[in-house]
Amino acid sequence: MASDPIFTLAPPLHCHYGAFAPNGSGWEQPPNASGVSVSSAALAASAASRVATSTDPSCSGFAPPDFNHCLKDWDYNGLPVLTTNAIGQWDLVCDLGWQVILEQILFILGFAAGYLFLGYPADRFGRRGIVLLTLGLVGPCGVGGAAAGSSTGVMALRFLLGFLLAGVDLGVYLMRLELCDPTQRLRVALAGELVGVGGHFLFLGLALVSKDWRFLQRMITAPCILFLFYGWPGLFLESARWLIVKRQIEEAQSVLRILAERNRLENTCPLPTTSSFSFASLLNYRNIWKNLLILGFTNFIAHAIRHCYQPVGGGGSPSDFYLCSLLASGTAALACVFLGVTVDRFGRRGILLLSMTLTGIASLVLLGLWDYLNEAAITTFSVLGLFSSQAAGILSTLLAAEVIPTTVRGRGLGLIMALGALGGLSGPAQRLHMGHGAFLQHVVLAACALLCILSIMLLPETKRKLLPEVLRDGELCRRPSLLRQPPPNRCDHVPLLATPNPAL
After folding, report:
1. Which residues contact 324 (CB under 8 A, 6 or more apart)?
2. How far is CA 13 from the centre of its chain?
3. Which of 15, 228, 483, 490 is an S-S bond match for 26, by CB 3.0 to 4.6 Å?
4. For residue 398, pLDDT beyond 70
5. pTM here?
6. How open is the CA angle 327-384-193, to the nearest 5 degrees?
7. 85: closest CA among 188, 215, 200?
8. Each residue of 279-331: pLDDT tens digit?
9. How far apart are CA 155 and CA 234, in angstroms?
10. Cβ(26)–Cβ(59) under 8 Å?
């Protein structure tokens, strides 16, 4: 999603004046103002003194008195990265500015739909197939979006691009998680997040080099076609866990044999047997649904509340844009480092609880003490809230992947990620309402963050424990009872340094 802020950044603008309007200015006089007498020089001076910035939802305050339509072209200047983008090409400002927000909403909805609807194919046909299919389609979709001749075509192809990228993200996350033993899952998950942060910085650098939004779109999507070489036999292996639960024993043995040869290990252990299930039977596993509900709600709030932590002075100047971009990527990198240092020591549940607590504290301070804090204090608490919400989002996704059984992990994790993507809609929705109700929205999200703190304590701890394979394993992953001793076969009573499953 890092590309969307650059592609939809509204530049500072003003009307290109010329002596073509009846009044001698570049602005058109509406019918209800025909009786107003204003000199051409006064109109031009008034219009020239009013320059619209990227933070203004419309241009009604930047036209001369009683004049509201620019008859000629808009002049755009001051874009921090690109020389022009889709907004400047099709003049998506003022009365057409809603199309920019619609594109942002559709792009996020594409991710949410991809996470939600591609989880079932990942469970049904395999993780590898979904990754290869979506990667192969990302290239043509991105190139087609760069060649679109209208804003409507760009919006449609951006939705499809988000849908496909979500499939890539979901499939790769599942494969790298299911490939690792319990002691390595956290490191691999955080390494993937850090690679994503590096991609954000790389994209910003490519944007500075390319300058043209169409060329940039082609440059970042066309090379995805090369990933089809991953389909070469033995190069990009299917998840052995998925093959086992789907009873494809020969294929699973082949994958494990290749992995054993690459790591110089022996593969002589028998594979476990699994049982099939129906969707109706899934409804009977209340503990799995409870974990999904809590983690989905936490992920939604962690993503929704991020836009509330904008630094002071976040206007439309190039310095403000770079500041916001560096803060978003920098806090994500710091969150990964923080999780890598603390999670294996204090557990998933404890650090997730701490992250949401810090998020709630930052929101309450900003809401209650905004008028009494100086700019440095406001910036500090904004960065703290952004950092803690990033950590909560990363950790809730990892914890969800560790408590959902392999048989339904694609669907379950897709649901969690889709809720996180939907949380990202809070920013465009607020801009669609021109900032009205921002305080109330922040209050509601802060209250929900406090509710997350209470619900997180009901989650199980998954540190260094085996992944659940079937629904029964997932049902047994629960928090120990406070009033009685739980039976010894529950996941919370697996030894801390459990022996890895020899079949995996």
Report:
1. 5, 310, 311, 314
2. 30
3. 15
4. yes
5. 0.82
6. 55
7. 215
8. 556 677 888 999 999 999 999 999 999 988 876 544 556 667 778 888 888 99
9. 38
10. no
